Fold this protein.
Amino acid sequence: MELHTRTLTELARGLAAREFSAVELARALLERIERAQRPLNALISVTADGALAQAAAADREIAAGHAGPLTGIPLVHKDIFCTEGVRTTCGSRMLENFIAPYDATVVAKLKRAGMVMLGKANMDEFAMGSSNETSFFGPVRNPWNTRLVPGGSSGGSAAAVAARLTPAATATDTGGSIRQPAALCGVTGIKPTYGRVSRYGMIAFASSLDQGGILTTSAEDAALVLGTMAGFDPRDSTSVERPVPDYRAELGASIAGLRIGLLKEFFEEGLEPESGQRVRDALTAFERLGAKLKEVSLPSIALSVPAYYVVAPAECSSNLARYDGVRFGYRCQDPRDLADLYRRTRGEGFGAEVKRRIMTGTYVLSAGYYDAYYLKAQKVRQLIASDFERAFGEVDVIMGPTTPTPAFELGAKTADPITMYLNDIYTIGANLAGLPAMSIPCGFAGELPVGLQLIGPHFAEARLLNAAHAYQRETDWHRRIPPGYA
Amino acid sequence: MNRTEIETIAHLARLALDEAEIPAYQENLSRILAFVGELERAETAAVAPMAHPLAGLTQRLRADAVTERDNRERYQENAPQVQAGLYLVPKVIE
């Protein structure tokens, strides 16, 4: 069996059994990355020398009998995570030449666990986008069909895992940026509860919504990596002080009796029929596994996208104020004075979508408008969170589609921002309420993968992973590889 | 949104816009504001605004103690222009 077709868990077994070395594994995947770079553009930076050095160190750990479960396993980091000594661009001209002076906590933890970084994944600029078309480094293409987008903002991470360039890739999710590309590329992705994974060194977009997570090819793999990434970090003031369970220990448990809520509003108009059918098929499969289905309703969920497009731009306009051309990042040529330096640095360093969001945020926070927009959006956010809380009084997990349609063509939705924003109609609710949520492959609409979304109450990551794993033991959608990358 | 409003917001956000870009921002921002205007429909008189997704948790404070090392030189490697350990900007005071 070729190395790249194996799951992370299978690779870990192979390394432990000395079937192949970490260096051989890293070399094999670096070759695949090189071949895939032109058609997919999934990575912004490839760190081949660093990867081979880390892999050699991993081989020494394995030989000495000190290996952990992730020692020697390759991964790609979304280019939003700071990596010490390695360029960290956030998909922006603003940070085109920024060399991070420290590691994000997520990066440091996975490095300590012996994982081998192959490179940095392409992404929408400052994670603002749903198609990976806003990247300064060019769009990423979907490995299932290169005329189509991979989703976003973690499009490079999802395309890299789907094309089997890496068994795992870190990602972040502010309004669906892990789950939506996971669905469009046919991979497994988990966004944990807000506060579960440290945001230290993860470049900020909208701080009350941003959360790091992982993309893999299976729930079992996601459980292993998430367990290592998660946990309290004193350097992130919103990090939660709560022990991390062993997510793998609960994977094998039966899901008989699990109460699944079918989210009524997610199956109404707007859902592409074939995708809807695949999601219903998956729910039937869960019933066969002993789960009980029940319809639930979230009456305020229709307002989640408008609430998000007030809260997220407001927080982004504040977070991105730091890019001023003084301490780091891009600076315009020959500024006339300080005001000109700020204005032109930001005008030239940011792309159109980022500027649009900064301006929206500046407007809704400006004098006279705060109550009408920001305060109102925060109240609607509470309504949506309360809807979820009521639903979780009746069911254990909520399920539905991740996206309204499968992958769409490049350029199809760039003309109108609202059309693009509505891609995240099913995913944004979990961010507003801070809930853990996953997307797993559940079949195909035509030749394109469809994602099933699972949403749980706060800190129910183990329950989501258990349900996803039970489904993946009965199906093989998650093992399907895009033709051309098999 | 008219041209003046776009120019005011761009000024508040310290963003230089090309003349040619302004009509597109007028149209896009008008569409976005009309879209988020749907929020008015929601009955929220009795609802407390939600600033943090985890109920009951507040921003943690830390002890007022020095915990970071001085990495100034290292950090200044990323600066566009430095001299003698200082960040350089265009002259502010004549």
User: Anything to note?
Assistant: The mean pLDDT of chain B is 92. The helical segments of chain B are 3-12, 22-36, 72-76. The longest helix of chain B spans residues 22-36. Residues 1-35 of chain B form one domain.
